[in-house]
TrEMBL record:
UniProt name for this protein: Epoxide hydrolase
Domain of life, source organism: Bacteria
One term of GO molecular function: epoxide hydrolase activity
Domain Epoxide hydrolase N-terminal residue range list: 53-157
Family according to the record: Belongs to the peptidase S33 family.
Species of provenance: Caballeronia calidae
Amino acid sequence: MSNDIPHSPSRRRFVGTAAAGVAAASLSQFALADTNQSIVSITKPSSASKDAIRPLRVHVPEAQLVDLRRRVRATRWPERETVTDDSQGVPLAMMQELARHWSTDYDWRRCEARLNTYPSFVTEIDGLDIHFIHVRSKHENAMPLIVTHGWPGSVIEQFKIIDPLTNPTAHGASASDAFHLVIPSLPGYGLSGKPGETGWGPERTARAWVTLMKRLGYDRFAAQGGDLGGVVANVMGKQAPPALLGIHVNFPATVPADIAKALQAGEPAPAELSDDEKHAYDQLSSAAKKRRAYALEMGTRPQTLYGIADSPIGLASWLLDHGDGYVQPAAALTSAVFGRTVNGESSGAMTRDDVLDDITLYWLTNTGVSSARFYWESHFNFLAAADVSVPAAVSVFPRENYQAPRSWTERAYHNLIWYNRLDKGGHFASWEQPDLFAEEVRAGLRPLRK
């Protein structure tokens, strides 16, 4: 007799129902976290005024952190790149090293606790909630300074410069160099609101920063920025509101119109350029040809980036694919992810956890796409000569996207009060070299203290 007994229809229904029940029960253990669940608590203001400053604290529900680790472990990986360098994009080995640490050893609660040590607030400006950290110095006559992060950064980028700038005497500097710091999240980034309408580009953001500083009681202040933060600071300088004392940028906009035209046409460097100018031209030319695909996509089709809202590894690789003046990903990012010096390039003070703190904030706030829209909202060349007349200080780090020559810088910033070329540091200068960066800000803005 055969042991193969035919299954009756009723038995098939029972087995199917039971299997479905087991599957549902198993699935419930791994159910996706409610990504709409708030990760912050905001103190209700004493008045109904839209101008109210509302204290904010961050606390991410544990279910969202469990879900993040589950998603990282469930990544479907592509095959390894067919080259031995990063010319095809972020290398597989780099992403898998990051994923290993992210899903096993990384602790978001450490970052969350540090974020909550700083006074953090939101206030509504022009219909949008703007998040900011506000740390006042204990020193008299401290200069109010608004510091803006870039992409793929966040306020986490600035953590290491807060104490050196607000408490300079603890870092070997003078009390007369102290700052009151305001560090906002750009619209659509981090803990700020996501614009529900068009128009939130650098110009509107620059005006919002003036409103924010005045709302905090600062009638006169300076602005600082790198990457997109440098773009906003440059726009503030060009708008030249009466309250603005001056600006400091480590992402200067100095490229003359004729040079920009030659670059756009893909022409070789003009023969009459000096050595510094030719070096900058070559860096800009290489970047335009090989390292700007992310900016083109975000500037034209940001809504298409659904994958970075759905996959943590997709988001991480997108954020990591940002170059410096020589390689992409930036040398400091690569060394930080691997936790060691790679190809002779140090990450400085930037650590793997610093990188993951930033990426995790993007993930938890689901701001991969909303942050990308800032590029779509920007309608000018970020590096074209700034044409700024307010006092301006420029620090040129050696591994920035390009090393702005003094000659171009003097033409772009008509009241240049500081220009300095550093011997270390790169695109993420405040992360990589926080003490050196802080000293540059102090020295660059010192002429404004009268």
